[in-house]
Amino acid sequence: MGDIFNENLKSAREKKGLSQKEVAEAIGVAKSTYSLYESGNREPNVQTIKRIADVLNVSADVLLGLEEPHTIAAHFDGDGFTPEELNKIEEFANFVKSKRKN
Prior knowledge:
Elements: H1 2-16, H2 20-27, H3 31-39, H4 46-56, H5 60-64, H6 83-98
Helix pairs in contact: 2-3
């Protein structure tokens, strides 16, 4: 996969604000295994790439360097919302994304 995958993987994780341990737990691998993915010393299988993409909310194509990430020209800082309301907003955004045609 080369350097592009591991660089994109680290960048997507950092943009999401997650630690390596959090992503590893979410995709069902050891933190050391995930760390090897980011360092380029190990390559995940296709199913694992899909789980990573889902957790990091990016496409597998973006992780693999086949497609550029999309930038949305909107700003949402969450001011004025309770944590519960922010959670509901995030759930709705994830619902909308899940309805996309692949």
